[in-house]
Amino acid sequence: MGGKTKSWLRLSTVLLLSLCIGLTGCGGGNGNSGAQPEAKDSAEQTTPGTDGDKIEPFEVSVFIGQPDQQPTPDNKIYKLIREKTGASFKFEFLAGDIDQKLGVMIAGGDYPDMMTANQKLTAAGAFIPLEDLIEEHAPNLKKHYEKYWNMMKDPNDGHIYNLPNYGVTNADVTSSYYSGPAFWIQKDVLAEAGYPEVKTLDQYFDIIKQYKEKHPTIDGTPTIGFEILNYDWKNWGLFNAPQHLIGHPNDGGVVVKDGKAEIFADKDYAKRYYKKLNEMNALGIIDKETFTQNFDQYMAKISSGAVLGMFDQHWNFQSAEDALITQKKDERTYVGLPLVFDESIKDHYKDRPALNLNNGFGITVNASEEQAIRIIKLLDTLIQEDWQKILSWGIEGEDYIVKDGRFMKTQEQRDLFTDATWKLANKADSFHGQAPKMEGLFSDGNATDGAAQPEEMVAALREYDKNFLAQYGFNSYVDFFSPAPENEIAYPAWSVDLVDGSEAKIVNTKQNELSTKYLPKAILAKPEEFDSVWDEYVSEIRKLNIKAYEDRINEVLQWRRDTWSVK
Amino acid sequence: MEETVVKDSAVRKPKKNKKITWAVLKEQRQLIYMSVPLMAYIILFAYVPIWGWTMAFQDYKPARDFSEQKWVGFKHFEFLFKDDSFLQVFRNTLAMSVINIILGFTTAIILALLLNEIRKVFWKRTVQTISYLPHFLSWIIVTGIVATSLASDGIINDILMKLHLIKEPIQWLSEGKYFWGIVGASHVWKEVGWNTIIYLAAMASIDPALYEAADMDGASRYRKMFHVTLPGIKPTIIILLIMQVGHILEAGFEVQYLLGNGLVVDWSQTIDIFVLKYGLAQGNYSLATAAGIFKTVVSVTLLLIANGVAKRLGEERLL
Fold first, then answer.
1. Count of A-B CB contacts under 8 Å
2. Are A309 and A225 in contact (CB under 8 A)?
3. Where exactly are the structural domains of chain B?
4. Does B52 contact A at CB distance below 8 Å?
5. Which residue of A127, A241, A435, B170 has the smallest Cβ count within 10 Å?
6. Predicted confidence band at A202 (pLDDT cuts at 50, 70, 90)?
7. pLDDT at A93
8. Closest-CA distance of chain A to residue B136, Å
9. pLDDT for res A158
């Protein structure tokens, strides 16, 4: 009996082993010999349709500097790209900290073919200059970037290393979504006050105060009047408001007046804002925990629907607002208000998109010369309009419908477009998000982005919002803001590279540290102590070599004016 | 890196009063062969990286050859010691470290003594398991729990309010004077159970005859704790203390980084956070290295001093 079992065991093991070997053998064979002819087949079929060059399959390794998910292997858009151009992508996404990851890559000099831009990489000489490659091989890209050509050059050596992914627009299209900074207020606060026009900081806090007095709790949670987030690098909730209140656009830590940048942290208009916050704190409007909370706690409070207002950028708390929508608390979602100190000041919150410098793909020194040419040709192909439609809207008939020449989506398609799992198999977002892209309108008048297509904007509005906007006579929430004027040529100052380890950067770090320390102190101080805390803060700031910081910004702004002006 | 050096020399403590001859070496050759991979490991990962200290004297730029680096002497050390806030972060680091050591040792020893007195194995095991489980949580989770418990509607304020000890919730995390204590308490909560394990092991090795003898002399339970158990684990305590002194500049990074905020920054910043802000985040690896050298030098010095003191007192030593 025992012997029999043993031999059975042996036999089955042998069978199993041989099966394994057979299977892997077959698998390997398929991979090597099966796939290639297929690719060639499709290549031959499509060749006449494209430009006559024979299509050879090639693989591009890509590093994306943000966390993302791998697309599914049979993703339909990448498959189409592979069939039509021969290119397949091997993505590596960021896991962990970008600085650490890049530090390791730089130290080893080990780069994939294509990487998203980063100052560290450029400084380490990881990217190859692209201008000659584009001139020679990529007429469409050249045309795409023509107006921005000088802006793309690196201030340090005049080469183009990266292809900015956003900011090349061919029409000023108003999207229904405003993602930038504003004083946000719960819709119900405005509704209860009878839909007033709120223009100034004082009016804003007045109606918040009234609402809070009337409703001490919302759904059982104590009402919070105003939140100020200052956590880690998300410091604009505390730092940035003063520049907007005097009618300037977002320049980061400076205000550019008559072409000269200066910090505003220690100016009187900043004092005026923080003094107001100090008064509001004394009245209990401001959340007591606002300066000790972390980002998650902040988001949790907003999601509860108990926060009446805050200064923030929309994208930052978008997911908390999404949670409110899911809970069907439409009246607890927010409207952005472009507040100023006095009604005589014109608001300038909304700005025209500036070229997204130091973003988008660059080709690394590790890509061979032929590979670099292949990549630039690939990008050149994909910037053309038919490809741009596929990358942005998808496949006609499947992902969107065309009615009288207008692109539209059915409700089902709209829902799919917000489904992350579906997108992994049916959209090429991780590539498209970083690649050069058309923004504005296609030549047939359709918007390049679904969210900016007027028909889609209307269809996407919920019932509550339709009524709300009707009270103001607006079409979308963007109408609360003054239209964006033309940007000053060097705008925005926040994108100036301060250069790691330089005096300017150290001064900036120290100044932020002082603000993080003193501003909460000043706001939470007893009203009669505010002035003394403020004076201490200002004197601490003046001890720093602020001039080094301002000089660096002015130097780059001047350089931009000199080289970016279209002559 | 420095730790490995220290610990390793402890392991390879040379046998005193015994001459090493070729004959002995030959006799023990299997053992020597076995130690080769370990030696290689230590040389490769503990000694070779010391070469990186050269970075502290350069304006180091990545992806450049050694010969292309710019040498700047003691510039980065100067920046470090001239900066006002460095003194402050040094103070904070030391203070929190000392608090952690004192609280950590006393609580762990007391808990171990108490556990040792429990006669029912089931209860002993249960208490032990429950108390050391938090050790396996990462600091990001622990700080989340701490922040939530200390919030104005958190459990601490709730209890204090219900007991009528306070009239309105205390903003624990916005007062600098509470910060060191909060960090110390969090460390205790997280590590106390884990730290008792080694003491319990030491207690288990105490000769039962000593307890019997004490019994014969009519010693009470407390007497036995003080005169048998504590002296029995004294060598362990001293060794651990010496090792802790070597880590005195490692007050931790995550706790302070995650619990700190603008209002308590004068108490919460440690050397590691300073290095992150002005070194790594600015791509200034040289400054980070300089701070690392400073920490190592201080640690090794303190370790030697503590070891010397222990020698004077005729206690157990590390080296």
1. 81
2. yes
3. 18-71, 84-312
4. no
5. B170
6. very high
7. 92
8. 21
9. 87
Of the listed ranges A15-19, A334-338, A543-547, B314-318, the one predicted with least confidence:
A15-19
Task: Compute chain A's Rg from CA coordinates.
Answer: 28
Task: Give the CA count within 13 Å in the CB-facing half-sphere of B203.
Answer: 22
Question: Which candidate, A123, A118, A77, A76, places its Cα nearest to that of A94?
Answer: A118
| Cα–Cα nearest to A246, from A232, A267, A222, A228 | A267
Q: State ipTM.
A: 0.74
DSSP letter string over A127-186?
BPP-HHHHHHH-HHHHHHHGGGTTTTB-TTT--B--B-SS--BSS-PPPS---SEEEEEE
Is 60 exceeded by the pLDDT of residue A32? Answer: no
Q: Distance (Å, rounded) from C-alpha B243 to C-alpha B302?
A: 10
Indicate the residue of A124, A294, A517 with minimum beta-carbon distance to B262: A517
At residue A195 the predicted structure's pLDDT band, cuts being 50, 70 and 90, is: very high
Q: Minimal CA–CA distance to A446: which of A458, A438, A436, A434?
A: A438
Q: Topology of domain B84-312, per CATH? A: MetI-like fold (1.10.3720)
Min mean pLDDT across A4-13, A215-224, A305-314, A358-367 is at A4-13
Q: What is the nearest CA distance from A500 to chain B, expressed in angstroms?
A: 5
Interface subset of A 517-546, CB within 8 angstroms of B: 517, 519-521, 524
Whether B70 contacts chain A with CB within 8 A: no
What would the mean pLDDT of A165-186 be, rounded to a whole number? 84
Read off φ and ψ for residue A408, nearest 5 degrees: -145, 165
Query: What whole-number distance in Å separates Cα of residue A482 and Cα of residue A337?
Result: 10
> Would you call A176 an interface residue with chain B, using a CB distance cutoff of 8 Å?
no
Position A68 scores a pLDDT of 84
